[in-house]
Amino acid sequence: MREYKMRRGEYLEDRIEDMEATVEEYFGPISGTEAYNDTELYVVEDPDNPVFSKVTVGTVEYGSKKDKLALDIEERPAEKVIAEGHVEAAEDAVAVKNDFLESATGRDAKSRRESMKRSVEDDEVPDDVA
Q1: 27: which residues sit within 8 A by CB, 6+ positions away?
Q2: 84 within 8 A of 90, measured Cβ to Cβ
Q3: What local confidence, expressed as pLDDT, does residue 121 receive?
Q4: Model's pTM, two decimal places?
Q5: Whether 56 contacts 1, CB under 8 Å
Q6: Is residue 44 within 8 Å of 31, Cβ to Cβ?
Q7: How far apart are CA 109 and CA 101, in angstroms?
Q8: What is the pLDDT of residues 72-98, one digit of tens each?
Q9: DSSP H stretches of helix in the chain
Q10: Is-contact 54 45, C-beta < 8 A?
């Protein structure tokens, strides 16, 4: 599960007013929920795009900190998708994921990658520190 933060000064609830409707618009009908960090995330068991086998997504609330978007997309093996003749669906899958994340976070793929790198670097402890 990856968590994505919003652009500085922006909040998830301002960018996506109705998470349930937005998830259904991008990924397909919601089949249930799943607990994650004291939050219920939406689960799409049969996503519209045949590349995705399961999508888990929602808002993770952190009390005094800004909420984050949690997203986990399980994908089917590429060979199987191609063998079924869904080559264009693979291209569309990348676009759907990036469009959803950009509309939710206000960040494009490059700035999301840079943000993830910074958060990993901030979490690392130097070898000589106990």
Answers
A1: 44, 47, 48, 49, 52, 55, 57, 96, 100
A2: no
A3: 58
A4: 0.81
A5: yes
A6: yes
A7: 8
A8: 999 998 888 888 888 888 889 989 999
A9: 12-15, 19-27, 78-83, 87-105, 109-123
A10: yes
